[in-house]
Amino acid sequence: MSSKKAKKDDSIDFTIDGQKVQAREGWTILETARANHIDIPTLCYHPALHPWGSCRLCVVEIRQDGRTNVTASCLAKPAAGMEVLTRSERVENVRRWVLEMLLAECPASQEIRDLAARHGVTATRFAITDPAEECLKCGRCVAVCNEVVGVRALTFGSRGVKKKLETPYRVPNNMCIGCGCCVSVCPTGALQKRLDTVRGDISRRTGASFAH
Amino acid sequence: MKREQALKESGPTPRLGIFLCECGVEIAPRIDLEVLAKLAGGSPDVAHVEVLPASCLTPGLERIQEMVRKKGLNRVIVAGCESRLLHKKFEQALAELGLAEGQFDLINLRDHVARVHRGKPKELAEKGAKLIRASQAWLETLQLAPRLRIDYQGPVMILGGGISAYGAAQELMEHGVETIFARPFDLAEEKERAYQIFPGEFHTYERLWKAMDEVEKSPLVKKVRVGDLQEVSGRFGDYTVTFASPDQEESLVFKTGAIIAALAWEISHQLPEFGHDGERVICQLEMNDLLRKGAHITGPVVFWVNDLLAGQPFGAHLSLKSAWHMAEYLKENFPECQAAILYDSAIDIPLGDVDFVRARRLGIPLIPYRGEVRPTVRQDSIAYERADDRTEQELDWRLLVLSPRRGPGKKALATAKILGLEVKEEEFLERYPQMVRPDQVVLGEKLMVGSACQPCDLRGAISQGHRVAGKTAALVKKAQAGELFAPAVISMVDQDKCSVCTLCREVCDCLAIQPVSGPVAGLGHNVPRIVDPMLCTGEGTCVASCPEMALTLTNCTLAQHEARVTALAQSLAADEVMGFGCQWSGAASADQAGLRGLSYSDRFYLLPVRCLGQIDPVVMGRAFLEGANGLLLVGCNPEECHHSHGLDHTWSRVWALKKLLALCGLERDRIALAHSDITKPEEYVHTVESFIRTMDRFGPIQRDADTQGKLKALYDALHTYRVRWVLGVSLRRPWETTYPMHMRNPAAYDQTLTEILTEEFFRAQVTNLLRQRGRSLQLADIAQALRTDEERAYDYLKDMGHDGLVSIVFINRTPYYGLPFGPQ
């Protein structure tokens, strides 16, 4: 990064994988890493949205004052003197678990399989409930419809293991404006296949049909 | 030369900052950003070029802000990724520094170039540079129009006869907003109307009476007696509403800031073919009256929910619900009376578990029948086919209650028409929420509401009123605090140029183009001349349709479009082609193709626009004039334009361009309209590659003086009133049902269009020729120069003379044609 004049906001000096980096107030560890060309894998994170912290793929190990902590880098704010490790044993362990769980959650997604393979995970020990599932419920589509578009046309329905992506009453939603932002943020293409269950039939414009 | 002129007029000199995003590893290794930075930085207006690791993250945004401050940048290009998703984030970051929407542009280098092309990094850098140069031309030509602050004066007016008015009034009272309740307010009459409009809603009437009571007592709600609605003019914040007076005197005129039209449906008796006789076979309206009056009813009563057979599927679950309430009421008051509900098994029962338990307890059977076999009404029983075992059954009845018929009602339609909506008889007023911005005043939501818009039950009507009024109240509060601004891109009418053809009003689906109140000298009454900034979606089809070119899209002008298209067309290589894609489908599909990692040829350059309807045919002509060999427009599916049929208007314009290209001696398929959908990016890829192959077959346009002259004539012809008018009024495709105009004979229209285009093309050619030669010419010269036969030329020239487009002077009995005398 270019020179920083320390005015009111001093730069926060810390290290990532031994490399000295500087951050400012308001930056997260993930943002600082990316600004310094340090790669941390993410899944539910998208720059257009507030960080969600649900996928746990971006975890890093933070060592400070003799304590260590494994936490999501998309949410964590750096402090001076931190030691951040992006590939420590604990971090790799968490990532392996996350990827194995994802392989069971959405086994049909090629993108998840590729991501897992890049980190050395090719099989999962968990039971696969739906071999055809592609949606990993990262929540990006819900967030984009809420924050960027402002329509809130889709949301999570049911809870726990039954949680899935739905529109109210499971019918195409009148409020959906059909912008496709949800499709654009979906990491796997799951929503691309299902967009018609959300946006419904545009012939509603004529008043000829109704979605109740 | 046009660009320099525009630059001089645009105020402070544009100082452009270009930020190239590495986007992690998505853009950087695939495109040589060093080379791109050098290429992009080449022009004089570029004050700053920089490569950033991640422009959209806080470090990147802060860096951009720093440079804007340091170098006084007033235009910013970020060559990174998706505009649709990140636009808001960049807008907020740059707004802090005083940069408004329109002063920055996001180019999707990642999905349109880096991830989809397999060229060498240096080659892709050259492509990126051309796209950046085009965006630069756009921004440099910008004449920044500040966002209008919306002033709000006067109370909110609730008009119309619908019950949703009470929900709306309640909500507005809660927010402390002053309201005018424009209808004859007689409590007893209103209650009676509620019974008529929503029969059988015994659970909800109390809630409505309470609302009516509150409204009656509230000092915030001023009640006025009015007759029929006559006229509405003005814009959000400043409306003038005129009613007929109830005592047949002068009209009543009100000034209001916002309007909520509560429109109720009309309920009528069921069709006679079902046996309705008003005595034994009645419909729910009459049943409701009987129950209210406490008439002693001996059974058995059968409620037959026959909406599906009557051709009103939307009413089915509403009728079922009210039948249930009435049956419940009946059994509670006359337990010995038998009641049953017979309904088509295809209907989704809108009852909860509790209701089923109650039905069992009260002894009300809910009987589904198979809809394919129509129940037969006999003297004492009704025969039907039972759904689960397909056996014919009989159900005894003494009183048969049919579903009512529901329709939007004449009054509701009349009011909607005055508010500017195109209405069809029997068609409900619901419109797809044409929301393209979250804070937009949406037609269906804020202006019109109620059961005539979206069929619902009583609770639904009240909550529709609440919902609309809530949003209206929020807008009113914002406006009163001086914080309500119109969006940056909206239509504006130049009233000096406007000749009141009202085409823009026909084109606009947003109801944004409104009449000015009162007569306008020389033009008449109720002249549509102003744009309501709160309703305008900034699509621009109206602008591109106006025959007088009297409309502008602020911060997105024709000059900008032409500058951008010129810059790109001039920079393309002989085997490269260009095109437009709308942000809902064409450009969105291109984004999606990149996200899914598809791959295609790099010889296609895409310019994103908000809606294809914004692209003036003049812009299409300019592209060809300045060097484009092929132009591909990719938009939404027919009749599915998210705005006001912009895509469909584009179809006519492309059609006209094809004819003009043929007149120039060029292949018609050099311009093409295609459709795409964001869920099928592979189709978009296929469209693009197919178009490139077609252009390869044609080869580049041979740009000799003759062809260039013809293309100039093409460009000029598209400016003429006649061509623009005939394009604007055409139905886009003969089979389209969603546009009010009508094309009776498409083949005849085709011929008319060809004739008009041919004539205007010739006229433009003649004018250009005369300007070029600088002197008057004889018929033979003109015919030879334009390669046409003298007889045809003579006929056209004669008409041109009539219309004052050429001067005809006779010397030695030979006519000489020259440019017209006097100011041109």
Give a structural overview.
The complex is a heterodimer of chains A (212) and B (824). Chain A is an alpha+beta fold and 212 residues long. Chain A folds into two domains: 12-131, Ubiquitin-like (UB roll), CATH 3.10.20.740; 140-204. Chain A is built from six helices and seven strands, in the order ββαβββαααββαα. Chain A has helices spanning 29-35, 89-105, 110-118, 140-149, 181-185, 190-199, and strands at 12-16, 19-23, 59-64, 67-72, 83-85, 155-157, 164-166. Chain A is globular, with a radius of gyration of 20 Å. Mean pLDDT of chain A is 86; it is low at 204-212. By secondary structure, chain B is α/β, with parallel strands linked by helices. In chain B, strands 7-6-5-11-22 form a five-stranded parallel beta sheet. In chain B, a hairpin with an 8-residue loop joins strand 9 (238-243) and strand 10 (252-256). In chain B, helix 2 packs parallel to helix 6, helix 18 runs parallel beside helix 20 (617-626) and helix 21 crosses helix 25 (746-773). Classes of the chains: A alpha+beta (212), B alpha/beta (824). Chains A and B meet through helix 1, helix 4, helix 5 and helix 6 of A and helix 3, helix 4 and helix 19 of B.
